[in-house]
Design brief:
The chain contains 4 helices and no strands. The chain is an all-alpha fold and 154 residues long. The chain has one domain. The chain is elongated, with a radius of gyration of 18 Å.
Amino acid sequence: MDITLYEFLKFLHITSAAIWVGGSLMLQALYLRIRRTTPDRVMDFFGDVGTVGTKLFIPNNLILVALGFWLASEGNWDLGETWIYIALAIFIASFLTGAGFLGPESARIEKLAAERGPADPEVQSRVARVLTISRIELAFLILVILDMVIKPGL
């Protein structure tokens, strides 16, 4: 079986997308279960989500985008295609949401939890808000998969 560079890059790109979307979906499913437990457990989970975000999702997502550009080059795709713009716009929005809100807000929540305790209603409310925004972001990531499959504008 011969595999072309394009096919190999596509495999890596899809694998990276599966890690991002599948990982995000799993974290949301776990949160929906864990939120019914104790505030301490919720904060432990919240810390784990932060670790997964910085250690797995950020490097994976940068690889995903790099592979996307490489794929476009290898496949002679025009970067001006509508479906590529849609994917990049959602990626940029996701990146800015993470860097501009989710990351900084998570740090503020951890500081607030250290001061007031994990059971503080504001702490728990802010954790829930961050994970709700993450759920909305996940819905947009799923739209990117649809975008890649149907390739609007082609």
